[in-house]
Amino acid sequence: MSAGHAAAQAQRTAEVIGTVHGRPVRRDRLDRRLAALRNGPGAAALPVAGSGEGRQLVRWTAHVLFTEELCAGLARRAGVDTGAAPPPLDALGAVQLGSVNAAAWRSHPAVGALFTAFAGAVARRPAPVAPAVRRWRLAVAEGATPQAAAGARPASIGWTTLADLPLALADAARPLAPGEHSAPVYAAGTWHVVHAVEVADAPLTAPGPDRPDPTVLVAFARRLDLERARSVRPAPGFEHPGDPAQPDNTHRH
């Protein structure tokens, strides 16, 4: 049996998709979430169930559930109030946070609440002295594979500095002139193609009160990575989509 067939069988037969803080995450939760995706407005863009990309979608969705459960547990332990609405997450913030974390932010209040508590405890970096910085107006296309990202419709993330992007995306954007786009690049658990719309030098302004600080978003994403490594144990077939050991991962060094 090939590794891909073994992964498919594991995904079909597992009753528990993994544990978070030692507590099992049941398969029926994943089935409900996948059904909602496949019956939702973006269903036409989803990969075929049972294909390699389809198995990656199953893994990605499982890790969204793991992240929700992880943040809910951390919020309970820290006594964080999850009742208040978190700051809205725009397209740039979603890129900075990573696709799994961004999806969990939008689907479970504990993620944004934990971020708000985290942000209050993190010292902000002082504003740069330079009067102006190079800024890019970018659009980013995402996909589970390089081919999917190359064929996806790019979504605008607005104006940003390269310092506010994940390192791989910043490196991809740096040489681009307006109208150009990068080759597919892997970052934050998925593939991206970066499209440069406009480049300009402009004063650097602090983020407004209606959006999260990008520096803190990146730090929060790293914190979640550490917490996942400590507390999340995926079952076979439900490894992280970017795990190089699983057979459907197309990201190879």
From TrEMBL:
Family annotation (InterPro entries): DUF7158 (IPR055582), PPIase_PpiC (IPR000297)
Protein name: PpiC domain-containing protein
Keywords: Isomerase, Plasmid, Rotamase
Domain spans labelled PpiC: 138-198
Isomerase found in the keyword field: yes
Top-level taxon of the source organism: Bacteria
UniProt KW DNA-binding keyword: no
Lineage, uppermost ranks: Bacteria, Bacillati, Actinomycetota, Actinomycetes, Kitasatosporales
Molecular function per GO: peptidyl-prolyl cis-trans isomerase activity
Pfam families assigned: DUF7158
Organism, as annotated: Streptantibioticus cattleyicolor (strain ATCC 35852 / DSM 46488 / JCM 4925 / NBRC 14057 / NRRL 8057) (Streptomyces cattleya)
Sequence segments annotated as region (Disordered): 230-253
